[in-house]
Amino acid sequence: MKRPSIFFLFIILCFSLFSQNKTAQEVLDNFISEKELKNASISIYAENLSNNTIIFDYNSHLALAPASVLKLLPTSMALELFGAEHKFKTELAYSGNITADGVLNGDLYIIGYGDPCLGSQNFTANYGKDFEILQTWTNEIKKLNIKKIKGNIIADISYFGEIPIPDNWIWEDIANYYGNQGSTLNFIDNLYYLHFKTGQTNGSPTIITKVEPEDLGYRFDNQVVASSTIWDDAFIYFTNDKNQMQVKGSLVWKKNDFTIKGSIREPEKYLVKAFARTLNSNGINLEGNLKVVDNFDTNIYRKVFYTCFSPILSEIVDYTNIRSFNLYAEILAQHIMKKTGKSWNESVIEFLGKKSIDIDGLKLSDACGLSRFNAITSRQIVGILKYMKLNSANKDKFFTSLPIAGTNGTMSKFCIGTKVQNRLHAKSGSIAGVRSYAGYIFNADGEEFVFCIIVNNHAANSFRIKKIFEDFFTGFAEIKL
User: What's the CATH architecture for 89-162+266-311?
Assistant: First the structure.
């Protein structure tokens, strides 16, 4: 057999390389022609960062619900307003006096200043494991030789006051782990864990075997059944009784320990309860009550004797974006509002306006993206991403907070084994009927693109919508310029 000529091999190689490349229009056409997107609203905008060339501009001024892509706003704004090294504090203080025999004739205070992650197991280097932070606080009280507290233990949430649940979060969300609006005194990420033993047959009942922490005082009306599907489809609901929860839906059958996460209602109340328990176990007795105040009387003198600090802000931003943690995003927004003296929507409009980013159509209901009533354009999000990349002193901290396709966080299982793996740095977003991505992508030549794509009201299941976007980004990275 004759060997093919070098020229023929060269022709084949060139044809192969050419056939892999697509124009931006071809990539866009392939995407919007997917049958599951036929009735969807789609907004796409992308630029080449090296020369400001527009790659995609499809309905880029259409304001849509972005889901968790919205977290790019509170994280970028917090970095800009407070700096990457900023820490949030929590203070311990007392009123009254301490007698020689160790009696505090006054109240003991936990004064919150909006640490998003106080006591979180995401940051054990700062707070210790489990409830170790409470033992640390107890040790500080021992240093004051306090053996008895004749007054109360008071959680002071005056800094933010009571944070209301956003009006348009849906009822199915707000009692579950991702639906907590936060507090001036957050604690252990405001989470509890329900452990289930599921039945052996489809539709058989489940049993709640354990609740962690075990001393929440909640009661559960368990209506969850076992299911032959692979989905966790159980949801926790609040009832009119703050200590009564209802759990509905289904969980995977034949499991001895299946865990779901719930949202601790009023975490500041649980914090003082847990602190009092720790004090008691260390021989420090409380004669008063456990209280929460949201408007402290400044005429009362308090002596601050210990200050606890959060991780630096850039580490909190990392977790917020990489793990898409709603609570941290909402608390960062509270800090932004406190600093600007404006509502969340007004704060964002002011921030974007100062960066010369168009604000037409912008209307925000929350900071984490859980609300379907948020409205923002793909061009506006790209404007934020461009500013952070090209003009911000925090650009590196912000960039490293974005999940990497096929590597970590919410993008760890995305585009694995494709040319996009490790070249796509993006925040993803997903709620019912919504899928979105925004960030930066590098092509084979090392050129960097900034982009945002938002889809509302698609008709695909989770597997199919993931595949549609993986195909889009694979084509995006191979665009012939």
Answer: 3-Layer(bba) Sandwich (3.50)
Q: In terms of DSSP H, where are the helices of 91-225?
A: 124-127, 132-143
- pLDDT for 7: 43
Domain residue ranges in the chain: 24-84+322-477, 89-162+266-311, 188-263
Q: Read off the pTM.
A: 0.94
Neighbours of 299 (CB within 10 A): 5
Q: Residue 143 burial by CB count (10 A; 0-12/13-18/19+): exposed, middle or buried?
A: exposed
Q: Determine the angle formed by the axes of helices 313-322 and 72-82, rounding to 10 degrees.
A: 170
Q: What is the per-residue burial (b if ≥16 Cβ within 10 Å, else e) of 20-35?
A: eebebeebbeebbebe
Identical fold for domains 24-84+322-477 and 89-162+266-311, yes or no, is no
- Residue 394's H or E segment, with its range, is none
Tell me: the pLDDT tens digits for 268-315?
999 999 999 999 999 999 999 999 999 999 999 999 999 999 999 999
Q: How far is 275 from 137, CA to CA, in rounded Å?
A: 8
